């Protein structure tokens, strides 16, 4: 049975590394919050929640209600980025306000975080709407625990990143002014993901209350600039596949759909139990894709398996998806988040 091995020591190492880098450049301690959305970037929601809780993480972010109710017992605070509750929920689950309809959909007393657009133009209210939304939140008797944004330029070296940071700094001052005006407790502020947090920490310090650490905690940092931690991060997930069958084929014989692979010499060929039905990208004749030991995945791969010149009973398909992302013209996030939740996951 195919299996994803999760290295808990690697995850904790990465969090230690990021925490040390950020807080060595800061006068005040910045909280590290874990992003566990989309099945913990494909690693496994409950498995990674277990490791994060052991580490001491207090605040986490998930995709939606369905993810939040699976792990709310692990942490003091869980925030769902998208959607509204579909049933009962614990008091430590907060929901993000992107639109007026979200305010009306929530019962009194619900914890909320207000997302504001400061330059990415994706989600969140406009800064000009800030006061009216806060008024509506207070009138509905919702508990505003956070105001946040997302700086979508953390991976890039251009000046837009700093312009966006400046916009959020102005927003924070306005929120603090409104908290005095309307008598509500100042909420927590956050705007930075892994790459942005590393960058701001290196260039003068972070003024937010927390940073949202996602891909970096899993061992990846897909950025276009040099930084002090990328080479020190350790990959958390390794994918293993088990042999289904083995056969000896003569020169000239063909393998798989449309016989895309033709043997130039006699070979031992085995199939292994991972395919595109498991979320592993489909390998065709236009791809050169290799497993961890350097052997090629023979095109075309199938829904439930792929072929390889090998007879090992178990092989490591990957322990680092960087080369797979390059082969498929994408980023590490996409390779990881595609992995099926039905694949067995084991923490070591």
From TrEMBL:
PANTHER family reported for this sequence: ALANINE RACEMASE, ALANINE RACEMASE, CATABOLIC-RELATED
PROSITE patterns cross-referenced by the UniProt entry: ALANINE_RACEMASE
GO MF entry, a single one: alanine racemase activity
Domain (Alanine racemase C-terminal): residue spans on this chain: 236-348
InterPro entries (UniProt xref): Ala_racemase, Ala_racemase/Decarboxylase_C, Ala_racemase_C, Ala_racemase_N, Ala_racemase_pyridoxalP-BS, PLP-binding_barrel
Gene Ontology cellular-component terms listed: cytosol
GO biological process, one term: peptidoglycan biosynthetic process
Modified residue annotations for N6-(pyridoxal phosphate)lysine: 37
Keyword NAD: no
Keywords for this protein: Isomerase, Pyridoxal phosphate
Cofactor: pyridoxal 5'-phosphate
Record EC number: 5.1.1.1
Binding site for substrate: 122, 303
Protein name: Alanine racemase
UniProt xrefs under NCBIfam families: PRK00053.2-2
Gene name per UniProt: alr
């Amino acid at each position: 049975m195919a299996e994803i091995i999760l290295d808990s020591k690697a995850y904790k190492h990465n969090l230690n590394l990021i925490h040390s880098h950020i807080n060595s450049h800061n006068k005040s301690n910045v909280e590290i919050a874990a992003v566990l959305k989309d099945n913990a970037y494909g690693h496994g929601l409950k498995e990674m929640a277990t490791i994060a809780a052991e580490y001491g993480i207090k605040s986490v972010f998930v995709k939606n209600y369905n993810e939040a109710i699976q792990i709310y017992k692990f942490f003091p605070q869980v925030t769902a980025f998208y959607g509204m509750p579909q049933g009962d929920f614990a008091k430590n689950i907060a929901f993000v306000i992107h639109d007026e309809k979200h305010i009306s959909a929530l019962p009194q007393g619900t914890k909320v975080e207000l997302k504001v657009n400061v330059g990415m133009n994706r989600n969140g209210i406009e800064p000009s709407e800030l006061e009216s939304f806060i008024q509506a939140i207070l009138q509905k008797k919702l508990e505003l625990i956070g105001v946040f944004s997302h700086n979508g330029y953390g991976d890039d070296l251009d000046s837009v990143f700093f312009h966006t940071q400046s916009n959020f700094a102005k927003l924070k001052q306005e929120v603090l002014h409104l908290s005095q005006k309307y008598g509500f407790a100042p909420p927590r502020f956050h705007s930075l993901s892994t790459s942005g947090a590393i960058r701001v920490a290196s260039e003068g310090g972070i003024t937010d209350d927390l940073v949202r650490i996602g891909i970096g905690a899993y061992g990846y940092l897909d950025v276009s600039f040099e930084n002090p931690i990328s080479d020190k991060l350790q990959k958390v997930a390794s994918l293993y596949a088990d042999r289904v069958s083995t056969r000896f084929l003569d020169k000239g014989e063909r393998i798989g759909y449309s016989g895309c692979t033709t043997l130039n010499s006699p070979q031992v060929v085995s199939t292994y139990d991972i395919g595109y039905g498991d979320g592993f990208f489909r390998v065709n004749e236009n791809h050169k894709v290799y497993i961890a030991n350097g052997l090629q995945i023979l095109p075309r791969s199938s829904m439930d398996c792929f072929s390889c010149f090998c007879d090992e009973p178990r092989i490591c398909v990957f322990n680092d998806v960087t080369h797979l992302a390059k082969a498929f013209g994408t980023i590490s996030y996409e390779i990881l988040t595609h992995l099926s939740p039905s694949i067995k996951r084991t923490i070591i």
